[in-house]
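Can anyone check this?
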Amino acid sequence: MDIRREPVQITGLYYSLVKFDGPLTNPMKPSDNLFKVIHFNLASGHFDGPEEIVKIPPVPVNNNSTHPSTVRGIESSDFNATGWYIYGTQDESDSFVVQAIAPRALLQAEPDRTVTEKKATKRYFREEAWQHLKDKKGTISSVLLSPGSQVKQTPWAEGQRALLIHVYGGVGGNKAEPAAKAPLYLGHFAYGTAEVVREPLTGELRFEIIYHQIYTHNTEGLISGSLHWSRYMGDRTFGFLGLRPVVDTLIKLDEFTDDYQGEGWVRWRSLSYRESPLDRVMYELEIMAARYRTGDGTGATFVGPANNCVQDANQALYAALRQISRSIRTSSDIELWKQQHPEQAQRLEQLEQLTEDLKHLLLPWGTARADWKNGDDALGSTLEDNPIKNIIRGLITWRTLLPRLTSDEVTEAFLNQGGSAWMLQTNQVGGFNPDIEPVAPMTL
């Protein structure tokens, strides 16, 4: 089998869309944690399909003695009316075991709210999205930011793709994680992709989300690489849907997310005659994820000021932008290509401006770190190995030290070029856990 791209990690062999009707008890085996569910009926558009008994066994606690997820009271949640996707497979008794969940309302390509005024959009992604998280516990939101748009709503069409910027916050409350007890909580950062697809179970449009995680091996079971939403967010044992506050910002800018074609453009392509800058970024992220899994051949990767999720995810972004720019400048066919594809040539000019804006963000001192510029092997060493070198490298790219700040800056760069951003937010969603509270990551 020819596998040219990194396989995507998923949870569950099967999935369905259901409404939880309530818990049941198996007197012979109470640990089965049975639930009665009602399946969605495509013909009627309602939850009047077959009824089924599924198993939702309790999940083990993590290192902080906290359950990553719970289904306590899930049948009474605000999202049960619109339904839940459940992912899993059958056990030896042919009962469906739920391994992951997802609120249907979150992934629908239909916003709860649209913001078009420029200052209001900036205020929302920089401030409002992370404000008053304790009051938002157990809620989701879907907000479309379309500055300058004259229409009330601008839903995205089927097949459109977006760059995803992921940031998660901390776990506070009675079972607060150690990092969230510190005065400053940093959070986590990742890039990914989102595509508008036709959901076969409902016939409606929804987002298909893949995270490209740059992450060290850890006790939470997260492996650096490409992870489907069901694995990274929805998984009941390893996911963060019920544990952490999360903001996923989906950014669409045609000049960046749509395909280009023609020999003058695709000298830098990795796979096909048609490719978008977004594809190139994801390809570089797959390379970085593979480096993280091996520690550049040392067998382990350590987090520090110079090498971490936000710094190295943006190193991959920089590498993609640098290669695109270099190929454009050195291509002998670029002028002919512009004549043959005038519409794409116009898009290319705006892409070059975006590239310059992002380079200014990523390289505030005007120069690239040696490992960013030359692709030097820098993983597999700790801060103690080269303390001065690590600190200097981190300071050169200081704007990519804080996950939330980096997300805000990259989002603003795309919006300034005419893009739109769809912000999907969850705050410890699923069943109710009284022992935890959401904590926002810091920014400047």
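Reply from J.R.: I decoded it. DSSP finds eleven helices and 18 strands in the chain.
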